[in-house]
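Chapter summary example.
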Amino acid sequence: MPKPSNTSQHCTHLPEPSAETQAHSDRLKQLIIRNIQANGGKITFADYMNQALYAPGLGYYSAGLKKFGKQGDFITAPEISPLFSQCLAIQCLHIMQHTGQTTILEVGAGSGIMAIDIVLELEKQAQLPEQYLILELSADLRERQQQAIKARLPHLYERFEWLNHLPEKPFCGIVIANELLDAMPIHLIKLEQDKIYERHVALDQQDNFIWLDDLPQNPHLQHAAENIQQLQHTLVHLNDKPHSDYITEVNLQAIDWVKSIADILESGAMLLVDYGYTAREYYHPQRSMGTLMCHYQHHRHDDPFYLPGLQDITAHIDFSSIALAAHEAGLHITGFTTQAHFLMAGGLVELTQDLNPDDIIPFTETARQIKMLTLPEEMGELFKVILLATDKTLSLPAFQFQDFKNRL
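The structure predicted for these 408 residues follows.
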């Protein structure tokens, strides 16, 4: 029997939306309500998240709201400093030299700043990509990327091409993505002793969103949940913790996406940057409420029902599942490390060695950026980089200082 759960808690500490943005959110809420009613009174959280983020013209990533940077809801590494993208470009250069492939495909390019800084660094290294492809499903973001690249790289604009879907098989080149997987809709599961439930979204009598726990209908989700339950029971035993209800996430779409890239990638490699853990860290007993998080005007909270369409909804990545999907699809896991180790071993030291400490303002600003990118309490430890390749001999300098792929 489905089990109703608590309703969401109103986030009274967050900034109030304007009348215009509130009306926008209300339109999306009504759309989701109609979908719930049309689907027998409930939808999976993955369906809810998909509509909240990607409903045409209304979802968070589909509407014309500013998402990145100081005026948005969060700041990504490429927005913090060009050093991040420059280090990524240097690793792309090594991949080009090893594989002979000179096409780059960026999936989900955000504001376009990472593409700009990567190509600028490769131009500086006299190793421009033959093509820089951008797969961007958001028409709003695509327009912003095109404007930014025209303004910053008018002489190289013809090298860029925007795609509506993955390239045809076979694809030879480098696939890169920064904070892409965490934006994919996730399924929520709830483990109660030996029982497995999927969390759905339903309506109360006032048409407010509430949780409704029911048995999983997706066999892939059921299988993943059983594996998580087994691992979680093992970790509970190892840590001498009592069994308790446990809520966590399963990102089936990220697993399918990795397999879809592997299917078309005939020669080359994939570099993915995101925040997350290995499975043993992700499903630790202490993480009993999962990692679901929302971002609204630089405030973090855990209520996904608050102002749908105006806030980002995200969850951390289980990199063990990504590695397993890649392995099953025929790719080799040739590197896995933290963002801090990736940057420090991947060119950050060389890129900053000519900074003049006496030039106080730029020196201090660069130091601040480096701290945000590398300190453990900032992005350095939580963000990870994984390298998946068709050639198992591919080795990049950025993974030679600390490679943690044996932990996956």
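To summarize the output: The chain has twelve helices and 17 strands.
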